[in-house]
Design a protein that fits this description.
The protein is of the alpha/beta class. The protein contains 6 helices and 12 strands.
Length: 246
């Protein structure tokens, strides 16, 4: 089984809680659009979002973590995200997953992930090397042909035992304590050094959504792709990733 873990920011730090909820609703619909039912989605949040969509494979985990003590706003946001990821990943044990995947709450994922993992239950895991990036509201989508995992946090699928949980897990620590769960670009190299290498996913696995107005870190230059990587956002891509206009 594949368990998706989705950390959701709180209303208190959102520019628009309504906007965050709409982005999340699209994300969770995408996650639940899998071609195989052998998955579960864990949403870790301070407050359950007000959305219409429900699914029997979703569990909401509410937390009461205090505000991070980091002086840097980005580090504060990452600390909150790290705490929620760790909480969700440990909770996932209840579902006996073969693999887990961290998903940012505004991204979309391929509907083929769960079926692929089901067919490869013993693999160390995969990193998404190829994926898409999309600016909200555009009629185009851009193919990232390599190193997608260095750009987007929705990128690593790990065998459950490779999550490297601290013993015991703590939730009142600073940013550095949660780095393994936050620094998505480093996971591939860390596991390679431990002789537990993960492979590139053999298909485009996710869509990195930009221009939402709610990014912790956003750099518009990340959309500077060649016209040769531009695609019309056609019905096939929309269907595979559950990507619809908000």
């Amino acid at each position: 089984m594949l368990v998706f873990v989705i950390p959701l920011k709180s209303p208190q730090v959102s520019k628009s809680w309504e906007r965050v909820s709409k982005l999340f609703e699209r994300c969770i619909k995408s996650v639940c659009n899998q071609t195989s039912t052998d998955f579960h989605a864990l949403v870790v949040c301070h407050e359950k979002p007000k959305i219409e969509f429900t699914h029997p494979h979703i569990t909401y985990i509410t937390v009461d973590f205090p505000a991070a003590k980091e002086t840097n706003p980005v580090a504060q946001g990452n600390t909150d995200k790290g705490r929620k990821l760790l909480k969700g990943l440990i909770y996932a044990q209840q579902f006996s997953p073969t693999h887990t995947m961290a998903v940012d709450a505004d991204d979309c994922v391929s509907k083929n992930l769960t079926e692929f993992i089901k067919q490869n239950p013993n693999s160390n895991g995969w990193f998404i090397n190829k994926g898409y990036k999309y600016q909200e509201g555009s009629q185009y989508i851009y193919l990232k042909r390599s190193d997608f995992n260095k750009m987007c946090g929705t990128c690593n699928i790990l065998r459950y035992d490779l999550n490297n949980f601290p013993q015991p897990a703590e939730y009142n620590r600073g940013y550095g304590y949660y780095k393994y769960y936050i620094d998505h670009a480093q996971v591939r190299d860390i596991l390679t050094q431990k002789a537990k290498a993960i492979k590139p996913l053999p298909f485009a696995g996710a869509v990195y959504i930009l221009g939402t107005g709610e990014h912790l870190f956003y750099d518009s230059t990340k959309l500077g792709f060649s016209i040769f990587n531009r695609r019309f956002l056609n019905p096939s891509i929309r269907d595979e990733f559950g990507l619809y206009n908000l």
